[in-house]
Amino acid sequence: MTARQRLPFALRREQLLAVALEEFGRRGFHLTQMDHVASAAQVSKALLYQHFTSKEELFAAVTAAVVADVTGRLSAAVLPEESSLDRVRAMVRVLFDYATEEPDGWALVVRHLDKPEVGAPLRDLRERLGSSFADLMLAHRRADPTMTPAALTANERRVRLLVPLMSGAMLSLVSWWLEHPDTPRDRAESMAVEFIWLGLDRLRSGERLPPSP
């Protein structure tokens, strides 16, 4: 290896994480080996092990970076002073943005979000997304003066049960849209928001949200 190829430690680590993200997103955790990452990064496996002592440590670092990116985007976009509906729209927009701008990160999330054996960071992301969607929908109901305490409790139970369905549907819809670029993004986003906000029963009845301003 020539002197020109020797990167400072921090830059080399950043490069390895970027390459590992692509490999994990493409192959998945179980099929990706340290050899694959070293070869794709054009470094020796010994050098890779200087930065990460195991595949598990490397995957944890990659997923932590992905989670930090997604949650940072959500924190910047979902503003507490906005209405619950606008915050749902912002969350959906963030997911579409991330999938478009970071396809390797999106592939990793889709492959591993529901696989608890591959580490805690993605489980935390799943829980955060689900809780956020649920809290926003419940806030809308709690603000309704006609809702009795019993009705609110029943509604909360239904919403919490629907959270895994909503999270899975969101991932599937965004991934489907990536594979069908002829579908206008604004239409796909609107359908995602309506599915989360109105629910399947109200959608079947023909109810729709007014266009976003």
Automatic annotation (TrEMBL):
Residues 33-52 bind DNA. This is TetR/AcrR family transcriptional regulator. Residues 10-70 form the HTH tetR-type domain. PANTHER family: HTH-TYPE TRANSCRIPTIONAL REGULATOR RUTR, POSSIBLE TRANSCRIPTIONAL REGULATORY PROTEIN (PROBABLY TETR-FAMILY). Keywords: DNA-binding.
